[in-house]
Amino acid sequence: xxxxxxxxxxxxxxxxxxxxxxxxxxxxxxxxxxxxxxxxxxxxxxxxxxxxxxxxxxxxxxxxxxxxxxxxxxxxxxxxxxxxxxxxxxxxxxxxxxxxxxxxxxxxxxxxxxxxxxxxxxxxxxxxxxxxxxxxxxxxxxxxxxxxxxxxxxxxxxxxxxxxxxxxxxxxxxxxxxxxxxxxxxxxxxxxxxxxxxxx
Length: 200
Hints:
This protein starts with 10 loop residues before the first strand and ends in a 6-residue tail after the last helix. The chain is globular and about 40 Å long. It has a single domain, classed as Spore Coat Polysaccharide Biosynthesis Protein SpsA, Chain A. It has helices at 38-46, 61-64, 82-92, 110-122, 148-156, 162-168, 189-194; strands spanning 11-15, 32-33, 36-37, 53-56, 70-72, 97-102, 128-132, 135-144, 172-176. The protein is α/β, with parallel strands linked by helices.
């Protein structure tokens, strides 16, 4: 297996800028799971992989700042969706590739993150997205920062779907098993509590 040392450095963007509708409007990244905010779990799993850890947040920047090297926020108000956060991350990234992860997947593991980076390195000019079955996971991806202009152009043309945009740009799929527990989105109070008793 390729070692981290042989992989090009990447920036990492943790998405925590959503409206939190499924959480009753709460700031999802700050909700606790196993005694820590969700953002702390993601930060711990990614911290050793980058010197450029970015968090996209539209609220509570003072609470997110300790977990990040830099914070970004949407350039439009009223929570325009994850593509806005990804655009902000691409503009801020210090490295040639940006790994994107949502804040509500605390069960993702080092092996999958490594696999994402290795697979992306084989297709350095294309976005990489996780996929399980026929379902793409557009918020679990690696994007060449060179595509920033293409993302901006699509945004200004009205595109708001990260997955559709990356497929148009020839995205590579990293196939995961169906119902892979590492991809569990803990994005409702019920899921947070259900998964609370499952070992991480």
